[in-house]
Structure formats: C-alpha cells, structure tokens
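Lecture notes, part 5. Sequence design as translation. It can be helpful to think of inverse folding as translation between two languages: the language of shapes and the language of residues. The source text, in structure tokens, appears below.
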C-alpha cells in the first residue's frame, strides 16, 4: 500500500508538513490532491519550492490520482497524501485508493464551522464525510504536529452541534 498516511489540511503544503511530518513519516512522495489547486501554476510552484530534498511531489486532481494509483505508478513509494476536504478522501476511497489512517491537521474556523480543537473546525457535511470514512475502518485522528497527542475524531465531535 503506497499511502502511508493521509492528512486533511487546508493549507496543504507548509512548513509543518514538510519539516515535522516529513521527519516522522519519511515519505518518498508528497501528494497534494485538489481539483482546483492543480490548475493554479503559481500556487503549485510555491509548494514545489518547499519540497524536501530526496522526495517527490505531485499536485494533481483526484481523477489523475486515482488513475496513477491504479496504474501502479506509486507502488514502490511511500506516499503522504494531503487534501483540503474530507470529501476528496471519499472520492479517492471510492476510486480504490487504500488509506491506512487519516490525520486532520487544519480546517479553518470559517463559514459557520464549529470549533472542535485548536486548529480544526467542522461543518455538518464535513462531520458526515468523516463518519463515512471512519465507517470504512479508517482511523481518524486530529493531530496538528507529530509531537501532539492524537485526539480521536469521535471523541472530538462528541457533544458538539454542527451547522
């Protein structure tokens, strides 16, 4: 299984991902899957500049990611998968991508989302999507940096109301 971990992080590639998570996971490839960002060359270029030496980086849409995984393109690599939205993870799972664990790093407190941790706020649809992912047997934790104790998703959303 090439994906060693997936992360929902609305900032996608940034210092914490390429330094701290890189040191913990030692991926061979950072894979950003986002149907909008993949078409924004200036943003893609800035993300590529932060890529650690000795790693690859893909910034592609979900259909291309599914095709690449199905064709075996990443079979010999350890892939750290990064997306902005839980819905993208569902699409990848529906496409046959195996994901061992989902780490929620940053989802901004905007658009009426309910804050469940220091860096994670969710709306009703995102909670529903995450529960669908969890129902597939995938462990979901909230963990901003590797040194933080992971918080189980179910525990974090308990006793919250979501709009």
């Amino acid at each position: 299984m090439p994906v060693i971990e997936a992360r929902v992080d609305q900032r996608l590639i940034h210092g914490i991902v390429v330094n701290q998570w890189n040191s913990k996971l030692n991926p061979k490839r950072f894979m950003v899957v986002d149907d909008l960002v993949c078409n924004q060359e200036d943003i893609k270029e800035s993300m590529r500049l932060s890529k650690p030496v000795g790693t690859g980086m893909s910034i592609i849409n979900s259909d291309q990611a599914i095709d690449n995984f199905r064709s075996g393109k990443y079979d010999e690599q350890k892939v750290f998968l990064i997306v902005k939205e839980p819905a993208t993870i569902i699409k990848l799972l529906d496409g046959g991508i195996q994901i061992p664990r989902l780490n929620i790093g940053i989802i901004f407190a905007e658009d009426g989302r309910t804050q469940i941790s220091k860096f994670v706020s969710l709306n009703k649809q995102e909670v529903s999507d995450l529960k669908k992912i969890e129902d597939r047997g995938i462990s979901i934790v909230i963990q901003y940096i590797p040194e933080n104790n992971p918080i189980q998703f179910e525990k974090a959303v308990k006793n919250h109301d979501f709009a």
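The translated text above is only one of many valid answers, since several sequences can fold into similar shapes. Residues 42 and 135 are 37 Å apart (CA to CA).
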